[in-house]
Design a protein that fits this description.
six-stranded mixed β-sheet, four-stranded antiparallel β-sheet, 336 residues, Cell division ATP-binding protein FtsE, Rossmann fold, globular, 12 helices, alpha/beta, transmembrane transporter activity
Length: 336
């Protein structure tokens, strides 16, 4: 399903690689925890799966496809088969829970009839069937994350990537999110979750891959967060590589670079809270109107159109907006 073949990624010449000589495979239907200190290479690994960055050496395969051979205009199609869940939720603040999920379907031209069936199904699956009309700020942090998971899964991707999905949640709420991810995994989706959540890893007892300084130092079929292995940083057996970060301070600037930075401008920071702010349970964090999610989805729609030179793009977007209020009919009925 996902394979790294002798992959090394160096962001800037002279810097230490973010990942080095990476040879690992995640098979279909697996649930994998990626663990390691900040800067260990987890985020770079996930970004290469999404083809946000390309390896400096080696080959990344996703669903049997060599990503280096996929042209840029086909990347949106690739990403439709990869759901992504973030620590900071990245919901569109002006859209309801229903509309946030609907938006992921609208940009790929899903028929309205199918949307009206799928979105309620997703809301029910994540336990929010009665909260579809609520805006993100009216939901708790756990509820916002459930909406984000529903949005990531609504296209039934074969792979679901989760970057610290429980990082902003209290333990009880985090447990519910883990149960939801486990349910998605049981339906056949490969789940790869980067986390610092010790209790989550210990509770699930799934495959654990630990990274240190861009290298995989541990790969256990049914592992725990901590390990007696002497190469583990998170277990306190090996000092954190703070000297490396002092030597290359640019690595701590990934969060400031913004989502639209080019590959050359991005540092190899593996700050696992990339793009996130601290959020209290009950308030959460939502994306701004110009958030990368909406821009990426719009770019995806444009990418689908670029192949047809005869299509009038302006006319294509002049049609009635797809994302509408799904509860408008109910409101009109109440007025009558």
């Amino acid at each position: 399903m996902i394979r790294f073949d002798d992959v090394t990624k160096t962001y800037m010449r002279g810097q230490r690689p973010a990942v080095e000589n990476l040879d690992i495979e995640f098979t279909r239907g697996e649930f994998v925890f990626l663990v390691g200190a900040s800067g260990s290479g987890k985020s770079t690994l996930m970004r290469m799966v999404l083809k946000e960055v390309a390896p400096s050496r080696g080959t990344v395969y996703v669903a049997g496809k060599d990503l280096s051979r996929i042209p840029s205009w086909k990347v949106p199609a690739l990403r439709r088969d990869i759901g992504m869940v973030f620590q900071d939720f990245r919901l569109l603040p002006s859209k309801t829970a229903y509309q946030n999920i609907e938006f992921a379907l609208a940009v790929i031209g899903t028929p309205r009839k199918v949307v009206r069936r799928l979105v309620p199904e997703m809301l029910e699956m994540v336990g929010l069937e009665d909260k579809g009309k609520r805006l993100p700020h009216e939901l708790s942090g756990g509820e916002q994350q459930r909406v984000a998971i529903a949005r990531a899964y609504v296209n039934r991707p074969s792979i679901l990537m989760a970057d610290e999905p429980t990082g902003n949640l209290d333990p009880a709420t985090a447990g519910g999110i883990l149960d939801l991810l486990a349910e998605i995994n049981e339906r056949g989706t490969t789940v790869v979750m980067a986390t610092h959540d010790r209790s989550a890893v210990d509770r699930m007892q799934r495959r654990v891959v630990e990274m240190v300084g861009g290298l995989v130092v541990r790969d256990e079929a049914r592992g725990s967060y901590a390990t007696p292995a002497p190469v583990s940083v998170i277990s306190g057996n090996l000092p954190d590589d703070s000297a490396h970060r002092d030597e290359h301070p640019l690595e701590d600037q990934q969060e400031d670079s913004g989502p639209e930075s080019t590959t050359a401008e991005r540092s190899p920071a593996e700050d696992e809270t990339h793009g996130a702010t601290s959020a209290e349970e009950g308030s959460g964090t939502v994306a701004s109107a110009g958030d990368v999610l909406e821009e990426d989805l719009i770019d995806e729609r444009e990418a689908l159109l670029v192949r047809d030179e005869d299509l009038d793009v302006e006319d294509a977007f002049a049609e009635e907006p797809f994302v509408s209020d799904p509860f408008a009919d109910d409101a009109q009925e109440e007025e009558r």
